[in-house]
Amino acid sequence: MGVYDTVTVPCPKCGRREYFQSKSGPCELAEYPLESCPPDVLQNVNRHAPMECEGCGTVFAVDLGPPPKSAEVRW
Fold first, then answer.
1. What is the per-residue pLDDT for 75?
2. Cα torsion angle, 60, 55, 12, 2, sign
3. How far apart are the first and last CA of the chain?
4. For residue 21, which of 4, 11, 46, 66 is within the disulfide window of CB 3.0 to 4.6 Å?
């Protein structure tokens, strides 16, 4: 079992926050909101993306920007 940091990312459609894991940066089991996440943690934030919002079903990932923001993924 490894360690990672968590980035909370708002769904671009409904705003519900979903949890993205990153294994870049300090990996101290810290939790960051996307809006103030350190750049080194963001490098690997899409490693399990895209995610599906549990609230509305929107499929999204992090657009690294700048500035970083959530973005719907279209298939």
1. 59
2. negative
3. 32
4. 4
- What average pLDDT does the segment 17-32 reach? 94
Cα-Cα-Cα-Cα dihedral of 23, 26, 30, 33, to 10°?
A: -80
Cα 53 to Cα 5: distance, rounded to the nearest angstrom: 19
Could you tell me the pTM of the whole model? Answer: 0.91
Q: Decide if 36 contacts 58 (C-beta within 8 A).
A: no
Using DSSP, how many helices (H) and how many strands (E) does the chain show? 1, 6
pLDDT at 1 over 80: no
- Between CA 37 and CA 9 the distance in angstroms is 10
